[in-house]
Design goal:
Blueprint lengths: L1 E8 L3 H12 L8 E8 L6 H11 L4 E5 L5 H11 L4 E6 L2 E3 L3 H6 L9 E8 L30 E2 L8 E5 H7 L17 H11 L4 E11 L8 H19 L8 E2 L2 E2 H16 L3 H26 L9
Parallel strand pairs: 1-2, 1-4, 2-3, 6-9
Antiparallel strand pairs: 4-8, 5-9, 6-8, 7-9, 10-11
Helix pairs in contact: 1-2, 7-9, 8-9
Length: about 325
């Protein structure tokens, strides 16, 4: 099997070096051919020098690709076009992986039973969430890049995250690439390009597998342990969901293409936020208010300027 690991990066040369060190230590079967394609999305730091060092230290293992069009989806789609593998795995420049990560992530993709896989992403060792952040709920730590469905392998009914996932190459030929109206760029932190692609496959009847033995760790920089970061994340996540999937079909009554139920929910969560006493509960209510505000904004913008879906590749 031929495998390409695609890692897109932008102005994170320090964390990139740490990520590539972990990737360089991957252990795969001798029969597998694999490469690491680092896509530099117009970085202005020492990214080129970092990647060139790995290309020199590991000849034939690492490749460098420059993508000048700003936006992660453009970088991802460029990586797909230039990849040599039959299976494409994806990770990020703030992730470190265990030595068996790639072997375990791609093992199920040797035949046609599975279209893709998602690995288990944990927070870096020693991290302790702040007191204002609720630990309750499946998605409580999602803004920090975790994807943890436990220790049992299973079919996925939700798409995996882009920091630890793999797909057969023919899935991109069949469904297209990542949407270029989604994904982070310097002037926007709106994400969702990864999960939208996975959802496209699930909606198309493809099978995705959760592989907990493919373990990766997400670095948590200090600037993300702030309420402002979480609020901005969920605000943009709500916007991305509306942009990707539209308003839920049961949202019938609307004004200016904005479902009235969103205004009601915004008011309800705002009131709960103001009267809540317990710290984490208070912040959780505020997050929900921000999410509804994000949905309202994106519904309004969609009505003013209908979006054009661009899948790339």
């Amino acid at each position: 099997m031929k495998i390409t690991v695609i890692l897109c990066t932008y102005n994170r040369c320090r964390s990139l070096a740490k990520a590539l060190e972990s990737v360089a230590a991957l252990e795969l079967a001798e029969s597998d051919q694999w490469e690491v394609l680092v896509v530099d999305n117009n970085s202005r730091d020492q990214t080129l020098e970092v990647v060139e060092d790995f290309c020199h230290r590991y000849p034939g293992r690492f490749r460098y690709l420059f993508e000048p069009q700003q936006g992660k989806s453009y970088a991802l789609n460029s990586g797909i076009r230039e990849a040599r593998g039959d299976v494409l795995a994806f990770t990020d420049d703030d992730i470190t992986v265990e030595p068996a990560w790639l072997q375990n992530l791609t093992a199920a993709l040797r035949d046609g039973e599975w279209a893709g896989t998602g690995g288990r992403v944990l927070l870096e060792r020693g991290f302790s969430p702040p007191s204002w952040l609720s630990r309750v709920g499946r998605y409580a730590l999602t803004p920090l890049g975790t994807f943890d469905l436990g220790t049992e392998a299973r079919d996925l009914i939700e798409p995996p995250f882009g920091n630890s996932m793999a797909f057969r190459r023919d899935m991109f030929e069949k469904y297209g690439g990542f949407r270029t109206d989604l994904g982070p760029r310097p002037d926007s932190e709106m994400r969702g390009e990864d999960t939208e692609f996975g959802r496209r496959l699930l909606d198309g009847g493809e099978r995705l597998r959760y592989e907990p033995s493919a373990v990766a760790y997400h670095t948590v920089p200090q600037n993300r342990i702030r309420k402002e970061y979480f609020l901005a994340y969920w605000f943009d996540k709500a916007r991305a969901d509306i942009r990707a999937y539209g308003s839920p079909p049961d949202y019938k009554c609307s004004v200016a293409s904005i479902p009235l139920v969103l205004f009601r929910r915004l008011v309800v969560w705002a009131l709960r936020w103001m009267v809540a006493v317990e710290q984490s509960r208070r912040f959780s209510c505020k997050v929900n208010a921000w999410m509804n505000a994000g949905m309202i904004l994106e519904c309004y913008r969609r009505s003013r300027r209908p979006s054009r879906i661009r899948h790339g590749v």
